[in-house]
Amino acid sequence: MNWFIDTLLQPSLIQTVILLSVVAAAGLTLGRIKIFGISLGITFVFFAGILAGHWQIPVNRDMLSFAQNFGLIIFVYSLGLQVGPGFFSSFKQEGLTLNLLGLAVIVLGLGLMLFFHWIAGISLPTMVGLLCGAVTNTPALGAAQQALVQIMPDNSAEVTSMALSCAVAYPLGVVGVILAIALIRSFLTAGDATVRHHGEHKDTTPYIGEFQVCNPAIYNQRIKEVMKLTSKHFIISRIWRDGKVTIPTSDTALQEHDHLLVISVKSDMESIKVLFGEQENVDWNKEDIDWNRIDNSQLVSRRIIVTRSKVNGVKLGALRLRNLYGINITRVNRAGIDLLASPNLTLQIGDKLTVVGEKASIENVGKILGNELKWLKEPNLVAVFIGLMLGMLLGAVPISLPGISMPVKLGIAGGPIIVGILMGAFGPRFHLTTYTTQSANLMMRQFGIVIYLAGLGIDSGAHFFETVFRAEGLVWIGLGFALTVVPVMLIGIIAMRMLRTDYGNTIGMLCGSMANPMALNYANTTVEGDEPSVSYATVYPLCMFIRVISAQLIIMLFL
User: Fold this and answer.
1) 194-203, 332-341, 400-409, 531-540 — which is least confidently predicted?
2) What is the DSSP pairing of strand 299-305 with strand 277-279?
């Protein structure tokens, strides 16, 4: 058994990999535990690493440092690839307002952090760590640590302090955004019928219902005119008329006794029933329904993936696919979230569109949207490694800034995320396959961030408990909570009271600016519609990028 004990306790490459694996597995398992419906997810790996570090298990520091840094590089580059396709299109029209509000959340948080630094006398690296924890952004922590190492390569104590303060502020960072949203809902949405009462749960999954046109007020009215009669969002997928199934266009006129297949959310079906007059008792939501046998025409249902760069950032209605090709797009799946296919929905590369129509028409629509399935299924690892190389070269470029004596560098966090965004946004234009499937990108991101968090926790856990369980630790917790709640509350009030932004878009923007998916899950239960998810996806790319870069700049400019 001596070989087994030596393998576990003697610092080596094998022992380091084993320790990282144990910490990652334990953290991921414990991260599934929910307390009051809230869990820390993969971030629990950080705390598992802190516990292992507290036991001061000897480890090969060089190997640990390499694994930690390489995990961060993989994560930020994969993140750049993920947000790249929608990064520049998010600045168009209404997306610009939401992104400006998201930037205001970030700027207010940075200003508040510097204010606390000056009045409380807490070191700047510690305050940056508190901010990273308050906004639940560990990539920003990695970027700030790299910037600190550039400026003070021998000051390992401040690097450790930054990680400890992040860990202290992180749990309340998750809860704080949810609390702020609850307060905004309570005090700013009185009388708003689109906001759900406490305890209700909203299912935003598209739901299919069959209706018969029995309302004389809509006889011979075109569909686009009928849709103006209600505030509910719905799509008419098929019309049964005289025993024939057809795909309607916006100019199709409804007639008495038409049978309509309507896609909306389940909670809106009663309102839609009032509009059309009668609802049939057929369950069209069973997974085993064969749509091709239901249609007594040549209609089929297919999923088409947006892969053509020219379509990226274009509104669905601007393509006029329904009128030109006689097809209907019933829903759009983006990053695992089903969105209603409204005309104002901006398409992104990787969106999966459910299209109903004749086979030939669907094939033509596929050519317009791309739908290069083979192109997407095979990962282009050449592009991944080229991107990593370019990202590291960009991160190593010295940049001279006014007021700073030594050149600064974007480092291993800033360089890869910028190259990842550019590759994701413009790679297809240069015939470079940079898109990866959602599962592949998620695998890369989670693997990278888990390795980074495990290494970070092990490296900084030795002094965690003695830091937290003292008066200074309580001050850190209070300041971190303020850094979470104050910017979210203030910008939320400004958005809704001064700019008249609706509640759904406001809370989605706030969750996106804080990069907090757990708060988004809560937000979706408080509003009817998918506005929070769309707004989250709109502001997330820019805000994540700014969070990572601003953490570095604060260290370089003010330290």
Assistant:
1) 194-203
2) unpaired
Q: Is pLDDT of 292 > 70? A: no
Q: Which of 152, 8, 71, 84 lies closest to 454 in space, CA to CA? A: 71
Polymer length in residues for the chain: 559
In this prediction, residue 85 has a pLDDT band, given cuts at 50, 70 and 90, of low
Question: What pairs with residue 305 in β-bridges?
Answer: 352
CA distance 326 to 492: 42
What is the phi/psi pair of residue 213, to 5°?
-75, 110
Cβ count within 10 A of residue 274: 12
Alpha carbon distance, N-terminus to C-terminus of the chain:
51
Indicate the pairing of strand 244-246 with strand 337-340. unpaired
How does pLDDT run across 471-496, given as a tens digit for each residue? 777 888 899 999 999 999 999 999 98
Cβ-contact 18, 8 below 8 angstroms = yes
Residue 176 contacts residue 484 (beta carbons within 8 Å): yes
Pairing of strands 328-334, 337-340: antiparallel
3-state SS class at 262: strand
Give the pLDDT confidence of 139-152 residue by residue, as tens digits: 788 888 888 887 88
Tokens at 547, concatenated: 């969070």
Q: Which residues contact 495 (CB under 8 A, 6 or more apart)?
A: 101, 501, 506, 509
Contacts 24+ apart (CB under 8 A), 229-234: 229/275, 230/271, 230/272, 230/275, 232/264, 232/268, 232/271, 232/272, 233/264, 233/265, 233/268, 233/340, 233/342, 233/529, 234/262, 234/263, 234/264, 234/268, 234/272
For residue 34, give the 3-state DSSP assignment. coil
Which whole number is the average pLDDT over 268-273?
Answer: 80
pLDDT of 465 above 90: no
Q: Which residue has tokens 């009669």?
A: 229
Max intra-chain CA distance, the chain: 87
Q: Where are the alpha helices (DSSP H) in 189-276?
A: 223-226, 269-276
For 197, which DSSP code? Answer: P
Closest-CA residue to 441 (of 414, 420, 464)? 420
Nearest to 227 by CA among 250, 257, 256: 250
Kindly state the tokens that stand for 216. 């004389």
357: pLDDT confidence band, cut at 50, 70 and 90? confident
CB 448 within 8 A of CB 24: no
Rounded Cα–Cα distance for residues 69 and 157 (Å): 18
CB atoms within 10 A of CB 256: 13
pLDDT at 358 over 80: no
User: Is the pTM for the entire model greater than 0.85?
Assistant: no
Both tokens of residue 309?
């760069």
CA distance 81 to 176: 29
Show the DSSP H helices in 135-278 as ranges. Answer: 138-151, 156-188, 223-226, 269-276
